[in-house]
């Protein structure tokens, strides 16, 4: 089993549907991977084309429990006096990236555009994200055993 760090580079989004009646949207992204969750900063007044340029890390195991190797990016609009609005989400499947990284030590998906879809599965813009995986090198020290004996 390979253990490593999955790093997500959240670059920008564009073409998001503006849900604010007055003023501009304040979008942020919730990134989820197998029960781990990270939240981006809020792009205040960025409207339908926000830019973040932020990095997030997740600890991953490959192969791990289950077969749900995907990143889910939920794009939300921060609201002050009401619940935040769901703008859409994108899904990035990373099983192949993890398999290559587990074998070679690291692997990378350069920043690419992924479709953002709303709850009704209609297209509503795109988000640009890059993903890398780096396997942790485990210390292989031997303690005791016949090699360390005096015989």
TrEMBL record:
Domain C2: 1-110
SUPFAM superfamilies xref list: C2 domain (Calcium/lipid-binding domain, CaLB)
Keywords: Calcium, Metal-binding
GO molecular function, one term: metal ion binding
SMART domains named in the record: C2
InterPro entries in UniProt: C2_dom (IPR000008), C2_domain_sf (IPR035892)
Name of the protein in question: Elicitor-responsive protein 1
Organism for this UniProt entry: Herrania umbratica
The encoding gene: LOC110425370
């Amino acid at each position: 089993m390979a253990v490593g760090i999955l790093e997500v580079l959240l670059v920008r989004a564009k073409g998001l549907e503006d849900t604010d009646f007055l003023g501009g949207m304040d979008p942020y992204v919730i990134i989820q991977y197998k029960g781990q969750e990270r939240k981006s900063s809020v792009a205040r007044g960025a409207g339908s084309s926000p830019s973040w340029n932020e990095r997030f890390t997740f600890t991953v195991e490959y192969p791990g429990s289950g077969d749900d190797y995907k990143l889910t990016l939920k794009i939300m609009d921060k609201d002050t006096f009401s619940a935040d609005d769901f703008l859409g989400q994108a899904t990035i499947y990373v099983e192949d990236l993890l398999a290559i990284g587990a074998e070679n030590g690291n692997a990378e998906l350069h920043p690419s555009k992924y479709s953002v879809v709303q709850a009704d599965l209609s297209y509503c813009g795109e988000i640009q994200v890059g993903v890398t995986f780096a396997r942790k090198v485990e210390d292989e020290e031997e303690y005791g055993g016949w090699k360390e004996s005096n015989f």
